[in-house]
Structure formats: C-alpha cells, structure tokens
Amino acid sequence: MNKHEHESAPERLGEYLIGKKIGAGGMGSVYLATNVHTDQQVAIKILPSALAREAGFVERFHREIEALKKMHNPYVIEFYDSGVENDIYYYVMEYVEGETLTKRLRRDKRIEWKTVVEISIQICSALKASHDAGIIHRDLKPSNLILKDDNTVKLADFGVAQLFATEKLTVTGGIIGTAEYMSPEQAEGKRVTRQSDLYSLGAVMYVMLTGRPPFSGKTMLAIIQKQKYGQFDRPSHYVDDLPVWLEDIVCKLLEKDPQKRYPDAYVLSRRLQEVINKYEMSTSEDTYALSGNSEDTVTPTQAQASVSEHEAGTGTLMQGLMRAQLESESTGSRLTQLLDNTWFLLGLLALLIAGGYFWFQERELTPDEMLQQARQIMQQPEGPEWYTARDKYLLPLLENPNSVNEDQIKGYLNRIQSYELRSKAGMTAKRKSRSGLQTEPQRFITLAQHYLESGNLMQAEIVLSALIDLLPENSDQKEMRDLAIQMRNDLRQDSNRTAQRYVMLTQSMSKADALLQEKKYEAAAAVWRAVIVLYGHDPAAEEFVANARKNLKQLPETIAADKSTSETQKASTENE
Predict the structure, then answer these.
(1) d(CA 498, CA 488)
(2) What residues form the annotated binding site?
C-alpha cells in the first residue's frame, strides 16, 4: 500500500477493521472490511481527505448517504452504516462475492440472449427503486454491475454521479458517466432523466448481446460525438439467433430522443418479460399445431361447419346494432354539430388560452413555478433578461425558507453575477463585437474563456491567477480583476475538477514512487517537476506539491544511498 492509500485507509474505522482495497475511483476507494463484533464482511467506501477539505463536499457526501438509505431492493448493494472518524468520512455497504459484468464479458465475450433478458429485468427492478427514490444513476455500466454465480445482479455506485454532477459538463474528463454508455443528452450537458439511465441500460444490453458497445472510438470525444450523432449497427448484424422483439427493445432504448424511449424501468421490464413469453409461444407445440402442419389440425371447412349456426344468430344481431349506431350518428345532436364546426372550436380554444393566461398572471406563483420561469429565462442566451430572472424569481426563492433547490438557485445567481461582471468589463459577446480591439486584460480574459470552453481547465486557472496578480486592486481595471476572481472561484469550486485533480495527482505521485523503486530517477524527478509546474499555484494541491518538492530535494541523497548499497552488495559478492 503506497503512502496516498495509507492516508485514506487507517487500520480501523468505527467497529470495522480495514482490509485489502477492492476498488478505486475519483470519488474514493472501497476496501474489504470486517465488523469486529459480528465478523461480517462488508465493503467500506472512504471519502479522500483531499475531497473532504473542499467546501461543500462533506455535505454532498451526506446527501449521497441519505439517497442510499432510501434504496431497498434485492438487486441494489445494501447500505449498512456511515460515520466520521479523525476527519475521515466513510460509509459501509454490503459486500458481494462475485464478478463484475466487465470481467464476465472479458472471459465469455458474449452472453446468451435469454440470460441477457434475465439480467436486464433485474437491472430494471434496481432502476425502478432508484427512480422512485428520486435518484438518477447517471453511470450505469458493466463495471458497476456485480454478478453472482447464479446470475443474480447487484447494482453498485448509486449516487456517484449525483454527488459530482453539475449543470455544465467539460470536454476533457469532466463529463459525468462513461462515454460508451452515456446518453446523448448527458453528453451534451443537458438535464438527465430516468430515460437517460434507460439509454445506458440499452448500451449495456447491446454489449452483452454482441460483445461490443454500440459506439466506440480512439478518444472519449470521438465516442461522445457518435453518441450524439452516430448510427449504430443493429444487434442482429453480429448475432444470428436474436429474437426480433428483443432487438427492437434494444434499438428503442438507444433512440437519440429520450421521449422515444420507454417511459420508465417498469414498462421496460414488462416488455422484456413479453419477449420470453412470445418466444415460448412461437416455439410451443400448440403454436405448431395451429400452423396447419399437424395431423390433428382442424380444417377450415370443419371449423366453419361447427360454428355456422352460432354465427348466423350473432351476425343478425350485430347487423341490427350497427345499423342503429349509424342512424344515430347520421342525425346527431346540436352539440355534436357545434363540436364538428372548426371555427367554433378555434374560438373556444382562444377563449381558454386567454382565460388561462390571465388566471396565471393574476394568481401568485408557487416556488416550483417560479423556478421553472427562471429556468426558461436562463436557458436563453445571456442578456439583460437574466436580471429579470434574478430579481423576479431567484432572489425571492432564495429568501424562501422552504426552498428545496438552493444549490440550483445559487448556481443560476453565480452565472448572472459572472455575466454582470463581464458586462461591466465590456466582455459580453455583443459588446465585444461593437467595441472592436480588446484591451490587454480583456484579451487574457478571452484567452482564459477559450481554455475553459476547450476543457483545458488548468491552463485557464494559470492565466486567471497571473492576471489577478498583475492587476492592482484599486485601479481603472477593477471590473476586469473582479471578473477574473469570479471566474477563478467558479473554476476552483467545480466539483468535477476537484475529483479529476485528486485522481491525476494521486496517480502521478504513485507513478513517481514506482519509478523511484525501479531506480529510474530522472523519470521520477520529471513527474515531480510536472506536478510542481502544473499545480504549484493551486491551494487544493498544496500537500501534493509539498511532497513533490520534498522528494526532489531528497533525490540526491536517495541516489547516493542506493549507490552505496549497490557497491556494498557488489563488494560482498566479490569477497564470497
């Protein structure tokens, strides 16, 4: 266990003895643990100390725990316990002996279609429980599905995307989810719904059936572009014996438009069960007999003779009923005639619209309606209308003690504040197009914005930090300095980037440690120097940067000590 792992995994947390690491990711590591009182084996997930120090992360970790507590389903990893000890936040969950779907596919390549249906129905049950609890998984993929020996499924990592999701997604690594299994709307940074999880399930079903995801590419960006605009091969292109009903379900799940997919996981599970029923009916002996190939098949003449008497009486009765119905419809009532008049219907529609408009304007809006109005304005291009959203809807909502969307409201207000600062500094799109040449501070703000939009967050922060240091606090460039500070604060508070930073730094320092063990001193030193250059001005990376500086300083002593040890061993060997 390297130093960084040891910092996040003490020997004991609460009543649990920590064992080996069984999983890791940007959100922390998962360890096998044992309850000291019951000897029960559990899995324990630890929030890294680097994330725990970030503002808001502890609160969000607690939200994830509260969400997991709502989950009660046989196909979801069960939540047991949570706690904090010595500033280490953790929660305990069920430990499942089995293998991930990823491992199964690596071994078997494909899975027989009946087993795929069986597994998918279980996943539907897990997703229904999640969606009923108000949780969108956002990262459904084979590595989050654990299969036991009897093909029972356990869905893991609920709440991960909920913990790190933001309204805007970045291009390089900030996207929440895995590219091969991500819905088009998720790839575009739009609002995700339960249909987004169903798309991911469709991609998982596709890879189980065919042995490959619906879209693949050399880079994540290439895969995302295909998710948004590409067309996949139908599963039957790779699998010969696939029932057409199952193929149609998979293709419907992979529709680009969420509204064209199934409405929820329950409906999908019923359709999957129908596949089994239809297949059994199509291959049963009874169906075969009806096809006319059996000796016991009743001929059409025999069937006609046996029911002719009954049909005669029934047919006469039906003729009378139909005639009466047609006569009734031909005469019609006055109301029916009015409803058949197009101009009458248009006038009635206009009255309803006008009445609804005035009723809506006169009555007081509910908080949900106010947020919806603000959301519609904020979806428009930036402009003075955003101030209306702030003053008329968002600020009153923030003052409401019963507001349940405080994070979203504050996010909108931050965007409006950023627009207001850029407007004062002459940095809005309209003002830049009218003003012609930019000042030097404006040019660097534009450069930082370019880095942000292209996903180069680190370079954007370097430019903004340098510009803040360059501009005096009290000067005619105050608006520009305030804007740079606002942009940098927004960047540093981005939870996606925090997770990325932690993963990159941890992996980089671990790589340097490994290189040092292999006595590749120059390569290890290059990694430490890169950490210092890239993160030297980042307060959140202070601990990693300090370790990198310390290791560089001690490197000559380490090299000398290793050299002395090697010479001693060589001399000892020669003497022998």
Answers:
(1) 13
(2) 45
